[in-house]
Amino acid sequence: MTTTELQAKLQAGQACNIIDVREAGEYAGAHIPGSVNMPLSLLEFRMHELQKNEHYFIICQAGGRSAQATAFLQVQGYDVTNVAGGMNDW
């Protein structure tokens, strides 16, 4: 999914669970309102906070870490979509 597609969902009022896998300092600098910061480095320890019956959009700075997080979470049975381009394209 592109950032434009995610923005369209948010502008249409759709509820979106957004997980930002950047480190806390990056997240503090700028983030999507309502997103949850869950750094990739801590994901395996915090994934229990996610619900397997919910859908999540995974974002990072450029798309690399979110792609890794998406692949990892899919293997664990989570319903996730990578947001290509990340905050650089936001």
Silhouette: globular
Q: Helicity level, as a percent range?
A: 25-40%
- Class of secondary structure makeup: alpha/beta
Report on the biggest sheet.
Answer: 4 strands, parallel
| Integer count of domains | 1
pLDDT under 50 segments (min length 5)?
none
Mean pLDDT: 98
CATH architecture: 3-Layer(aba) Sandwich
Protein name: Rhodanese
Domain Rhodanese: 12-90
Pfam family, one: Rhodanese
What brief labels describe this structure?
alpha/beta; Rhodanese; 90 residues; Rhodanese-like_dom; single chain; GlpE_sulfurtransferase
Task: Give a structural overview.
InterPro entries: GlpE_sulfurtransferase, Rhodanese-like_dom, Rhodanese-like_dom_sf. It comes from Caryophanon latum. By secondary structure, the chain is an alpha/beta fold. The protein has a single domain, classed as Rhodanese-like domain (Oxidized Rhodanese, domain 1). The chain has five helices and four strands, in the order αβαβαβαβα. It has helices at residues 3-11, 24-29, 43-46, 64-75, 86-89, and strands at residues 17-20, 36-37, 55-59, 79-82. The protein has a four-stranded parallel sheet, with helices on one face. It is globular.
